[in-house]
Structures are given as structure tokens and as C-alpha cells.
Fold this protein.
Amino acid sequence: MLHIIWLVLKIIGIILLVLLGLLVAVLAAVLLVPLRYRADGSYHGRPVVTAKVTWLLHILSLKAVYDEELDLSFRIFGFRLLKPGSRKEEEVEEELILQSQELMNQLEEEITEEAKAEPLPHPEEKKAERQKTVKKERKAEASEPDAESDSPLPVKWWKKLKAFLSGFYYRIKDQFLSIQEKFEKGKEFLQDEENKKTIRLLWKNGKKLLKHLLPRKVKGEVIFGFDDPYITGQILSAASVFYPLYARQFKICPMFDQSVLEAEVSLKGRIRIGTVLFILLQVYCNKNFRVLLKRWRG
């Protein structure tokens, strides 16, 4: 009897260990196996883009193609789950269109019924009501004491100018005090040593995260230009921030004398979820960051 109980417990233990091992393997795969992405795009009068994301030796893959229309496909073990333009999707679209048309018809019927049930007042009645309201307003205006009518015209102007200047002065003063208060708070925040450490940590980990998320390889060429050379120069200066990362294989050709846009771009990279979580966890474990986050949330 004890031997049977021991055998059952042994089998249960083996099953639990296998399940635990599978859970650990899945968790390790999610955290350590990177998501690989690739995109190819071109622009010669119209955009054409192809993007693909794969995970775990292409067991899961998502592909998107845009060429005047968006085409999405999702595969598991090579089997396609999303089939654009399939019969089911067309039937669903037709059913949604029919339902929306029926709903619009019902709303139109309800509106017409309400309009019939509540007849509009006769135009003469409307006119009489308007005349009554106008008479009442005139009587009310005549009954109110007009203190300013007794004053000379220059005095009226002086009072209005004085009130305007006074209001303008106090508005400017309040804005200046508000800006000064914000400046003092910002200065106090930046001078705090703990805040300095937190800012350095955010800067350091932010660069790590950006480097990890950005594509590792970028190839291609972009030729662009605008009618206004100033706009071309501004865009070129903005692109120069990232240009040192991909200068060997990526070309940017500005055209200052004509309006043109042509592009051929290919990029690929990878994102490891475990790395992203580790970088974010380093920031969240900072005590001062949690205090600032709590204060910001209010």
C-alpha cells in the first residue's frame, strides 16, 4: 500500500517538475529570445513598405505590406491565421454595413415621427413672442440707472483706460510671479544631489534603451528637397543627430534648388524583452525616482 502511495506521489512530483520546467523554459524564451524586426521601404511618387517581425526561429511571425492598401499576415509554425480579403472578412464587412444602414434608417424614422408629433409654432406666434421679449428688454434697460451717462466723455474714456491698464498690469504681474516661482522650484530641484543622481541614471539608462531599440543596420539613400531651402536645412540638421550611427551605409542627399523626395531604405534590428525590463528595473529600483514618480502622480 505504501509502495503504491509512494509511486503516485513520485508520478505527481515528476509531472509538477515537468510543468515547472516548461514554465521556466517559456519564461526564459520570452525574456531572452529577441524579437527580430526588418523593414524595407521605398518612395518614388508613392510609398511602398514591407515590415516583418519574427520570434523564436520564425515560430511566430507578423508581416505587413503597404502598397496603396495594407496587407497583414500572422503565422504560427508557418500556418497563416490572418488572411486579408478572405470570405469571412468580406461577409463581416457586409454585415456591418447592413447593420449601420438599418440603424440610420431607424434614426431617420424616429426623427420624422418626433417632428410630426411636435408641430412647429406658427410664424405669427413667433413674431409676437419676439416683440414681447424685445419690449421687456427695452423696459429693463430703461429702468436701470445709467451712471455713466451723467459723466462727460473724457471722464468715461479715462475710467475705461485706467481699468484696462490696471487689469493688464496685474495680469503681467501674476504671470511674472508664476514664472519666477516655477524657475525657483526648478533651480531647487536641479541643485538637489539626489535629483542629480536620478537625472544621471535616467540619462545613462535612456541611452542604453534607445541604443537597444534602434535598428542595428540601416542601408539606403534618401534624396529630398523643398521649395524653401531653409526647411531643407532644418530637416538636414535634425537628421544629422542620428546620421553618425549609420553614416557608412546610409546616404542623405539634400537638394536646395528643387522640390524632390525619393527614398530607398532597408533596416533590421532586434529587441530583447529581458534587456528592456532590466534597464527599466534599474531605474525603478532607485528610491528617489520612486519618490519623484509618486509626487508627479499626485
Q: What stands out?
A: Residues 144-149 have pLDDT under 50 and may be disordered.
